[in-house]
Design a protein that fits this description.
Layout: E1 2-4, E2 10-18, E3 21-29, H1 34-58, H2 66-71, H3 82-97, H4 113-129, E4 138-145, E5 148-153, E6 161-167, E7 170-180, E8 183-189, E9 204-211, H5 214-226, E10 237-242, E11 247-251, E12 254-257
Antiparallel strand pairs: 1-2, 2-3, 3-4, 4-5, 5-8, 6-7, 8-9, 9-10, 10-11, 11-12
Protein backbone atom coordinates (compact mmCIF):
# COMPACT_ATOMS: atom_id res chain seq x y z
CA UNK A 1 0.00 0.00 0.00
CA UNK A 2 1.32 3.45 -0.97
CA UNK A 3 0.23 6.52 1.00
CA UNK A 4 1.17 10.16 0.56
CA UNK A 5 2.17 11.30 4.05
CA UNK A 6 3.51 14.78 3.26
CA UNK A 7 4.35 16.97 0.30
CA UNK A 8 7.80 15.42 0.34
CA UNK A 9 7.30 11.77 1.29
CA UNK A 10 5.26 8.69 0.51
CA UNK A 11 5.06 5.55 2.67
CA UNK A 12 4.96 2.02 1.24
CA UNK A 13 3.53 -0.43 3.77
CA UNK A 14 3.58 -4.23 3.62
CA UNK A 15 2.03 -6.58 6.20
CA UNK A 16 2.56 -10.33 6.61
CA UNK A 17 0.98 -12.61 9.22
CA UNK A 18 3.49 -15.25 10.29
CA UNK A 19 4.59 -16.97 13.51
CA UNK A 20 1.35 -16.00 15.21
CA UNK A 21 1.91 -12.27 14.84
CA UNK A 22 1.95 -9.46 12.29
CA UNK A 23 5.16 -8.36 10.58
CA UNK A 24 4.99 -4.99 8.88
CA UNK A 25 7.45 -2.82 7.02
CA UNK A 26 7.25 0.88 6.23
CA UNK A 27 9.48 2.29 3.51
CA UNK A 28 9.63 6.07 3.13
CA UNK A 29 10.28 7.23 -0.45
CA UNK A 30 10.37 10.45 -2.42
CA UNK A 31 8.85 8.95 -5.57
CA UNK A 32 6.89 5.91 -6.73
CA UNK A 33 8.60 5.19 -10.03
CA UNK A 34 7.98 1.72 -11.43
CA UNK A 35 11.64 0.70 -11.17
CA UNK A 36 11.73 1.59 -7.48
CA UNK A 37 8.44 -0.19 -6.73
CA UNK A 38 9.61 -3.33 -8.54
CA UNK A 39 12.82 -3.45 -6.51
CA UNK A 40 10.92 -2.96 -3.24
CA UNK A 41 8.50 -5.74 -4.21
CA UNK A 42 11.44 -8.04 -4.96
CA UNK A 43 13.03 -7.33 -1.58
CA UNK A 44 9.73 -7.82 0.23
CA UNK A 45 9.32 -11.22 -1.42
CA UNK A 46 12.81 -12.24 -0.26
CA UNK A 47 12.05 -10.98 3.25
CA UNK A 48 8.84 -13.01 3.38
CA UNK A 49 10.75 -16.16 2.36
CA UNK A 50 13.24 -15.46 5.16
CA UNK A 51 10.49 -15.14 7.78
CA UNK A 52 8.85 -18.35 6.55
CA UNK A 53 12.23 -20.12 6.80
CA UNK A 54 12.65 -18.84 10.36
CA UNK A 55 9.22 -20.16 11.32
CA UNK A 56 9.82 -23.55 9.73
CA UNK A 57 13.23 -23.85 11.40
CA UNK A 58 12.57 -22.54 14.91
CA UNK A 59 8.88 -23.10 15.53
CA UNK A 60 8.03 -25.16 18.64
CA UNK A 61 4.63 -25.86 17.03
CA UNK A 62 5.86 -27.50 13.81
CA UNK A 63 6.74 -31.13 14.48
CA UNK A 64 9.37 -31.40 11.74
CA UNK A 65 11.06 -28.08 12.48
CA UNK A 66 14.79 -28.23 13.18
CA UNK A 67 14.14 -27.01 16.71
CA UNK A 68 11.75 -29.87 17.50
CA UNK A 69 14.11 -32.37 15.91
CA UNK A 70 16.91 -31.08 18.14
CA UNK A 71 14.71 -31.19 21.23
CA UNK A 72 13.79 -34.81 20.51
CA UNK A 73 17.49 -35.67 20.40
CA UNK A 74 17.43 -36.55 16.70
CA UNK A 75 20.30 -34.18 15.84
CA UNK A 76 23.63 -33.61 17.56
CA UNK A 77 25.04 -30.09 17.83
CA UNK A 78 27.45 -30.51 14.91
CA UNK A 79 24.59 -31.71 12.68
CA UNK A 80 22.65 -28.48 13.17
CA UNK A 81 22.39 -25.62 10.71
CA UNK A 82 24.62 -22.59 11.21
CA UNK A 83 21.56 -20.53 12.16
CA UNK A 84 20.53 -22.99 14.87
CA UNK A 85 24.08 -23.07 16.24
CA UNK A 86 24.10 -19.26 16.30
CA UNK A 87 20.80 -19.14 18.19
CA UNK A 88 21.97 -21.74 20.72
CA UNK A 89 25.18 -19.81 21.36
CA UNK A 90 23.40 -16.46 21.53
CA UNK A 91 20.81 -17.71 24.00
CA UNK A 92 23.57 -19.12 26.22
CA UNK A 93 25.32 -15.75 26.13
CA UNK A 94 22.06 -13.91 26.86
CA UNK A 95 21.49 -16.11 29.90
CA UNK A 96 24.96 -15.24 31.20
CA UNK A 97 24.78 -11.47 30.71
CA UNK A 98 21.27 -11.23 32.19
CA UNK A 99 22.21 -13.40 35.19
CA UNK A 100 19.70 -16.08 34.08
CA UNK A 101 16.76 -13.67 33.82
CA UNK A 102 16.65 -14.56 30.12
CA UNK A 103 16.69 -18.34 29.81
CA UNK A 104 15.71 -20.26 26.68
CA UNK A 105 15.99 -23.50 28.67
CA UNK A 106 13.29 -22.60 31.19
CA UNK A 107 11.44 -25.85 30.41
CA UNK A 108 12.55 -29.37 29.54
CA UNK A 109 12.99 -28.17 25.95
CA UNK A 110 15.12 -25.49 24.35
CA UNK A 111 12.65 -22.74 23.47
CA UNK A 112 14.43 -19.72 21.91
CA UNK A 113 11.39 -17.77 20.69
CA UNK A 114 12.28 -14.86 22.98
CA UNK A 115 15.52 -14.41 21.05
CA UNK A 116 14.61 -15.63 17.58
CA UNK A 117 11.99 -13.01 16.72
CA UNK A 118 14.24 -10.02 17.47
CA UNK A 119 17.20 -11.61 15.71
CA UNK A 120 15.09 -12.62 12.69
CA UNK A 121 13.74 -9.08 12.32
CA UNK A 122 17.16 -7.47 12.64
CA UNK A 123 18.80 -9.96 10.28
CA UNK A 124 15.96 -9.78 7.75
CA UNK A 125 16.10 -5.99 7.86
CA UNK A 126 19.85 -6.01 7.25
CA UNK A 127 19.74 -8.60 4.45
CA UNK A 128 16.65 -7.58 2.51
CA UNK A 129 15.60 -4.02 3.32
CA UNK A 130 18.82 -2.09 4.00
CA UNK A 131 20.12 -2.69 0.44
CA UNK A 132 17.24 -0.49 -0.77
CA UNK A 133 19.30 2.53 0.32
CA UNK A 134 21.17 2.03 -2.94
CA UNK A 135 18.09 3.62 -4.54
CA UNK A 136 18.36 7.38 -4.16
CA UNK A 137 14.62 7.92 -3.61
CA UNK A 138 14.52 5.64 -0.54
CA UNK A 139 14.71 7.79 2.60
CA UNK A 140 14.00 5.47 5.54
CA UNK A 141 12.56 2.09 6.46
CA UNK A 142 11.55 -0.11 9.36
CA UNK A 143 10.57 -3.70 10.06
CA UNK A 144 8.18 -4.37 12.92
CA UNK A 145 7.19 -7.71 14.42
CA UNK A 146 4.66 -7.71 17.23
CA UNK A 147 5.68 -4.22 18.33
CA UNK A 148 9.45 -4.77 18.19
CA UNK A 149 11.14 -2.69 15.51
CA UNK A 150 14.42 -2.25 13.65
CA UNK A 151 14.72 0.95 11.63
CA UNK A 152 17.13 3.10 9.66
CA UNK A 153 17.11 6.53 8.00
CA UNK A 154 19.41 7.84 5.30
CA UNK A 155 22.18 10.06 6.67
CA UNK A 156 21.38 13.80 6.56
CA UNK A 157 17.65 13.14 6.12
CA UNK A 158 15.20 14.98 8.38
CA UNK A 159 12.92 11.93 8.61
CA UNK A 160 12.02 10.38 11.98
CA UNK A 161 9.63 7.59 12.91
CA UNK A 162 7.32 8.54 15.79
CA UNK A 163 7.15 5.40 17.92
CA UNK A 164 4.20 5.09 20.27
CA UNK A 165 4.48 2.83 23.33
CA UNK A 166 1.06 1.59 24.41
CA UNK A 167 -0.27 1.53 27.94
CA UNK A 168 -0.50 -2.23 28.67
CA UNK A 169 -3.75 -1.71 30.59
CA UNK A 170 -5.44 0.43 27.93
CA UNK A 171 -4.38 0.13 24.29
CA UNK A 172 -6.14 3.40 23.45
CA UNK A 173 -3.58 5.27 25.56
CA UNK A 174 0.15 5.81 25.14
CA UNK A 175 2.75 6.01 27.90
CA UNK A 176 5.46 7.40 25.61
CA UNK A 177 6.02 8.79 22.13
CA UNK A 178 9.59 8.41 20.95
CA UNK A 179 11.01 9.97 17.77
CA UNK A 180 13.64 7.69 16.24
CA UNK A 181 15.57 7.88 12.98
CA UNK A 182 17.61 4.68 13.33
CA UNK A 183 18.07 1.88 15.81
CA UNK A 184 15.83 -0.64 17.54
CA UNK A 185 13.09 -0.68 20.15
CA UNK A 186 11.52 -3.66 21.93
CA UNK A 187 8.65 -3.78 24.38
CA UNK A 188 7.80 -6.78 26.51
CA UNK A 189 4.82 -7.18 28.82
CA UNK A 190 1.18 -8.13 29.14
CA UNK A 191 -0.22 -6.03 26.27
CA UNK A 192 -0.07 -8.54 23.40
CA UNK A 193 -0.31 -11.98 25.04
CA UNK A 194 -1.11 -11.34 28.69
CA UNK A 195 1.16 -12.78 31.40
CA UNK A 196 3.09 -15.10 29.06
CA UNK A 197 6.69 -14.79 30.29
CA UNK A 198 7.69 -17.66 32.55
CA UNK A 199 9.03 -16.39 35.86
CA UNK A 200 7.93 -12.79 35.22
CA UNK A 201 7.86 -10.50 38.25
CA UNK A 202 4.41 -9.53 39.52
CA UNK A 203 5.79 -6.03 40.12
CA UNK A 204 6.17 -5.17 36.42
CA UNK A 205 3.56 -4.76 33.67
CA UNK A 206 5.80 -3.71 30.79
CA UNK A 207 9.38 -2.89 29.86
CA UNK A 208 10.76 -1.01 26.86
CA UNK A 209 14.41 -1.02 25.77
CA UNK A 210 15.97 1.14 23.03
CA UNK A 211 19.33 0.62 21.36
CA UNK A 212 20.90 -0.13 17.99
CA UNK A 213 20.30 -3.89 17.67
CA UNK A 214 16.92 -5.53 18.08
CA UNK A 215 18.31 -8.91 19.08
CA UNK A 216 19.98 -7.20 22.04
CA UNK A 217 17.16 -4.91 23.20
CA UNK A 218 14.58 -7.69 22.85
CA UNK A 219 16.59 -9.92 25.21
CA UNK A 220 16.88 -7.15 27.80
CA UNK A 221 13.18 -6.26 27.57
CA UNK A 222 12.30 -9.88 28.37
CA UNK A 223 14.94 -10.21 31.09
CA UNK A 224 13.70 -7.11 32.90
CA UNK A 225 10.21 -8.58 33.07
CA UNK A 226 11.73 -11.39 35.14
CA UNK A 227 14.21 -9.32 37.16
CA UNK A 228 13.45 -5.58 37.10
CA UNK A 229 16.43 -4.96 39.41
CA UNK A 230 18.93 -5.93 36.68
CA UNK A 231 21.50 -3.30 35.78
CA UNK A 232 21.19 -2.70 32.04
CA UNK A 233 24.17 -1.78 29.82
CA UNK A 234 24.60 1.98 29.77
CA UNK A 235 24.35 2.24 25.97
CA UNK A 236 20.70 1.17 26.18
CA UNK A 237 17.76 3.39 27.17
CA UNK A 238 15.24 1.59 29.36
CA UNK A 239 11.95 2.38 31.03
CA UNK A 240 9.23 0.26 32.59
CA UNK A 241 5.73 0.41 34.09
CA UNK A 242 5.06 -1.10 37.49
CA UNK A 243 1.94 -2.91 38.66
CA UNK A 244 0.95 0.34 40.40
CA UNK A 245 1.11 2.11 36.99
CA UNK A 246 4.20 4.14 37.79
CA UNK A 247 6.81 4.62 35.05
CA UNK A 248 10.53 4.49 35.79
CA UNK A 249 13.60 5.01 33.65
CA UNK A 250 16.76 3.05 34.34
CA UNK A 251 19.90 5.16 34.45
CA UNK A 252 22.89 2.96 35.23
CA UNK A 253 22.23 1.34 38.61
CA UNK A 254 19.49 3.88 39.51
CA UNK A 255 15.78 3.79 38.70
CA UNK A 256 14.28 7.28 38.27
CA UNK A 257 10.52 7.80 38.45
CA UNK A 258 9.31 9.78 35.43
CA UNK A 259 5.54 9.61 35.99
Amino acid sequence: MIKQISEKYQMITEVEFLMGTAFSSQIIVESNQAELLNEIEKRQTELRKWLIYIDQTFSPFIEDSELMSYNRGEREFFELSDDMKFVLASCAQAKTVTKSAFDANYSVMFEPSGFVKGWAIEEGFKRYLSPLFSLTDVVAMNLNGGGDMQMSTREYSDWQFNIAVQNPLDKTKMIAKIPMASGAIATSGISERGHHIVGASSEILQTTVIGQHLQEVDVWATALMVNPALEVPRHLKTFYMTATEEIYEKKGDTDVKIS
